[in-house]
Design goal:
Elements (H helix, E strand, L loop, with lengths): L12 H13 L1 H14 L9 H16 L8 H19 L5 H17 L10 H16 L5 H26 L5 H11 L2 H11 L4 H29 L6 H5 L4 H22 L4 H18 L11
Helix pairs in contact: 2-3, 3-4, 3-13, 4-6, 4-9, 5-7, 7-8, 7-9, 8-10, 9-10, 10-12, 10-13, 12-13
């Protein structure tokens, strides 16, 4: 019997109950996994960093979305999610020059294309950890399915470029909601997590192409939910809610979440994927949508 459940009733206590179950059923293994990641990447997982505070909840998210039969995938997906969080932390740092961020983006994308990360001239402990983590995650992607691997590399490069583009965009005066969302949808990175999962499931390219527009709907719902969390916690001056503007901005973003979630569920339901793949996609969206509207990954029920 699977340990996951669907997030359909909106009952906040469900998160606390599932977090307790996570602690009982998986946390001994999860604690070892977190300790290994802290030891391997000490700079980006420092307790003072957002990612360092979020490790348990990141593990909680991956565990909730995987089936019992997918437990061997948890370490890979956990590393991918930690990478996403740590890189987001890096790009959010306004003290780091934009030129350095653009250079790092170009170096990682080149390394992804050549499958050689030795060329990356990481200039700080933070960048060394990020580079090593990219190397680890890329090394898990199956090589015996070159088309699927190419799809994953393309998605990873797209993530990097979107993060760099969002960093440039938020520094511009007068950015509007539409311009912000065009880059923000991709930079939140859930498509990267889904691509990593789909690559390991060796989903055929025809199906990946079929899913591509569907995943954008899911990414829009997740990013909008994330920005609701940012707005609630006053983390970022510019987010989807503040840029939408007006007294009903938050309700407008919530309507976007509902509609994009509906389109995502509809598209995944029609896609030519195995039932267990469909379950993971739908449950990950349900988890993130509800979780972000109550918590954030550095403050939540798995703490």
């Amino acid at each position: 019997m699977s340990h996951r459940r669907r997030w359909t009733d909106g009952d906040e206590t469900d998160f606390a109950k599932l977090a307790d179950r996570f602690g009982l059923e998986y946390w001994p293994a999860g604690a070892r996994l977190v300790a290994e990641v802290r030891e391997a990447y000490p700079e980006i997982t420092r307790p003072s960093r957002r990612t360092g505070r979020a490790l348990r909840n990141i593990c909680f998210f991956v565990w909730c979305c995987c089936r019992d039969g997918d437990l061997e995938l948890i370490p890979t997906l956990f590393h991918a999610a930690v990478l996403l969080s740590a890189q987001d932390d890096y790009y959010d740092n306004s003290r780091i020059p934009a030129a350095e961020k653009d250079s790092f983006c170009a170096e990682i994308n080149q390394s992804l294309g050549t499958s050689s990360f030795e060329l990356c001239a990481a200039r700080s402990p933070q960048l060394r950890d990020l580079t090593a983590l990219w190397s680890y995650v890329a090394g898990t992607i199956p090589r015996r399915a070159p088309e699927v691997r190419s799809y994953w590399v393309e998605t990873a490069c797209q993530l990097n470029e979107a993060m760099a583009a969002e960093n440039r965009a938020i520094r511009r005066a007068g950015i509007n909601y539409e311009d912000y969302m065009r880059t923000a949808i991709l930079s939140i990175g859930v498509v990267f997590i889904w691509a990593t999962y789909l690559a390991h499931e060796r989903v055929p390219m025809a199906t990946l192409r079929e899913l591509a527009p569907v995943l954008v709907h899911g990414a829009t719902a997740v990013r909008s939910s994330n920005d609701i969390a940012s707005y609630r916690q006053q983390k970022n001056a510019e987010n989807a809610v503040t840029l939408a503007g007006g007294s009903s901005a938050c309700f407008r973003i919530l309507r976007t979440v509902v509609e994009e979630s509906r389109l995502f569920r509809q598209g995944v339901g029609k896609a030519s994927v195995q039932p267990h793949v469909r379950d993971v996609l739908l449950n990950s969206l349900d988890f993130l949508r509800e979780f972000y509207q109550r918590y954030d990954f550095d403050r939540g029920p798995a703490w």
